[in-house]
């Protein structure tokens, strides 16, 4: 659904040139034109309009001087910097353009009619006057000569397999009489045929076709030859076949023209000579002749050069050039160039550019050269409101095919409306107004501007407007019928009239004002015109040209919102046209940095948009390079369109991306487009291969794509859908949002998650707008606790989050409760099923309440029930809930009628549930409910019912309590002074002892009066105080209590609880001497002295205290010496290990062999291997350790850290041993301080001073060694990777080696942290210093 838009026109007419042009060839490398005439060759520069070179062929006699000579072929040979010319007299001349030297490379006595070079210029084919073909190499060496007319069909001759005769075969719609019809006699060539051969090569140069008049029949035939000059096929007899011939470069079809009985067609042949399709030219039979057919280089456009036939009524024939293209098996006439009847404007030759596919070169008789640059463009409406029909206009000759995509996606060539114009259409313009309804302007070849208004009503029988595939009166929303308002005639001067397409880039900027461009008064200049529609009745257009740009303007774009007009020049520069100023001017387009914007390559489509408050221009080249201002954002974009909130692009990877423009920055947009790793979210959608954007429906979710074969596809891009749904939800338009979300499968949780507070405040509005029980049920059943705005549908732009509700309830429960309340308020009978759904959907499901609702329906009268019956409600509930689960819940209501109703609706066998129900009915009420609850495994409820059944059922209750561990629930059912309570407590205590909770068991026993069991439990838990309380409750005698105290004291001594043992011995066993000895054993000097002086036993000081103090001093000195020696030894060994480690690391890095066996490089004394090897050594031997407890795993981990010299992790083991030494010494501060005080107390100053000195030296040694042992380099490396956007290959390699050789394979990072010393304890005595 694209049209050919004219980008620029170039006119050139050099002066003082003699003769009449006969043909031309493009000199692509120089950008000049080689024109042949009856006197020679002229080289013309189209930019300067000057003759740069002139070569005469009359001086050396190749052409006669009287001007009767004719050049039949001209070809530029860029690699030889020469041009090859063939004359009608038979000479083949090579003209060297640098020296103007002429070289006759061959001559044919019979003359030449055609010279044709292969596309690769490796071969040249000559047609002679004797109807022969001569094939030569590029060095003009003959390869072969053949007759044009061959009796044989060729190598591709069809083979008859002999399946019956022609009379007995099936002839389809032609009927049986077709078997007896004689072959049609082929008429001779038309009178105006010049009888010259025509030659056309296939694009790859492997085949060429020759059209020539057969001397026997006088009719034209097409023969296909191979590159090896072997005849391949001969066309079937085609009456009225004309001289035009062109082979499609892609190789599929050969085009020619045919004069039929009642029409004039362009016909296509396959390589085997058979006809394959046609289309009809828009002229009456006998009016025109087809001079030439030409395919452009990409096989997309077919140019047809036509000319009126001379007759008595038409003595001055007109010349036409038509550009045709095909799509969806329909041929469109996209552009028509009418050159008038003037002899000066008659076309001599035309050709497509070999390098630029859509550049057409035309040469007229009076040396007028015209160059047209075309490009594909989609003409679409630019409105943004709901009234805009999203119209797309397609040019097809004198018709405009208008399709309104808001109402239906009609595939081309069908359309919504067909606008019939009096002459062929060249340009279409939609108004750049956001509020338009689909108005459009049409410029035709007669330079008439027709204005159509979309009124919504009008004369439907108007011959100028016809209904297409969709009748506008039958749709739900009326389609605005375009009506012709007025046709304005654009008056041209004589010089302007010689260019059929004088105006280009027509843009409708205001209701009565158009902007357009044309070639300026000087070469490579452009004039900008203002076309002002007059309000008078004469339908006149006032043309003013206030600005001339000193460059070729190839694009003109207007922003519908800001009305800013951008001009793109041929060199990529972007200018801003201030057309609304009093004196219009053109200024450079500046970006945010203040520099002029210039596209690196000229863009075929430019669009403006405002991003972040900045006017931004987007551009797309024909090479799929996408620019934002002057920066290239992507290189694989095939099409794009600007939505008022989104930028949509299609890519070569067959995806459609939808990027938000709202609340984003220009830099963020460029980064998103240039990001190679595209996130798989709602901004990305897969599309069919080669799809391009046609249009987007404003205020809707439709995106129209066209695939290469021509048909359309309507997609609803997820980003567009969600954006539109969010708008509807913000406007409280729940009905529109629900219909869209249901149709396009958007999760309905978005209703709540988008803005919870707004939804809960408008629940009644939601129910009234949706107004469908089924839809409400669908909404309720889709509810989930998940927040879909954070998981499935996160917002594309960072905006202020909606106000969240500060509710402790769950989301689903909150919605169900709100919905149920609103439905009960509006119409409870109508929404009965939805109310049931709200109960079932809660967590946990309220099935009992739902069943209760059904039971209420059963007792209500039908008039009150409304449209919902009990059977319908129950059937619906069974659809939501598993029948077995519902049966159990119905049984839990203790309503047997309801149970029977549910069971009847299920697939259960009555033989299974009827006996069970009958048995339950015979039971006592409480025991019946107990049996039901036990069957349903609702044991707490069953326990409550069973407790009401009397004392005879208490053993059964106790067994239930023990089986289900319901001790807490059972204790609540009985008063504390009852025997049942005591029995349950006794069982509970035994249960706690089994769970190794002896202290809690003792509390339960004590509370229920089982003091002996409480005593045993407290003794088991070690709580001697509660045990003594229990003994008191048991009224123990003093001897028995003393014995109990000695027993407990022994256990406390074993646990090194010396003070507790002393209390028991002194207060309960009355043995203070034993208590003093226990305190001395536990180094509790002060407490021991207190008892000594309390009981006045100072003799114990001499006998026990002083010896204990001296022994303690000796033990501490020995321990400090041992720890000091071990510390020094480990420190020295650690230093040696580290040196060996560093040496091994340097050696391995020098070898640069990371995969070599490192163990060969280490000595036996080395403790360093790689972390991978260290872990692998233990991976097999300790494989069973992973199954053990965490304590055992830590123990196994410590085993890895062996202090054996040369072990893999010896340095780690040394660190661990040194840390243990430091911590053990530091923990003695309090104990040493107490010992020092009591040594001084009893006069052992020397011993105390010796201990203090030794302890101080040990601490000093360790404090000064900590920085050396635990250096900062030992800190464990972070777990995060070294990779990132700022990483380089060298940094990654260095980090890898550093971690590999310096990081030990350990799992405990605390080993590398120095132990902390407790400096808050003041342990030294000043009097000893």
Notes on the protein architecture:
This protein is α+β, with helices and mostly antiparallel strands and 1329 residues long. 32% of the residues lie in helices and 26% in strands. The chain has 35 helices and 56 strands. It has a five-stranded antiparallel β-sheet with strand order 29-30-31-32-36, with no helix packed on it. It has a four-stranded antiparallel β-sheet with strand order 1-28-27-26, with no helix packed on it. Strands 2-3-4-5 form a four-stranded antiparallel β-sheet, with no helix packed on it. Strand 3 and strand 4 (40-45) form a beta hairpin. Helix 9 (811-827) packs antiparallel against helix 10 (832-841), helix 21 (979-994) packs antiparallel against helix 22 and helix 25 (1038-1054) packs antiparallel against helix 26. The chain is elongated. The model is unreliable at 1152-1188, 1277-1282 and 1300-1306 (pLDDT under 50).
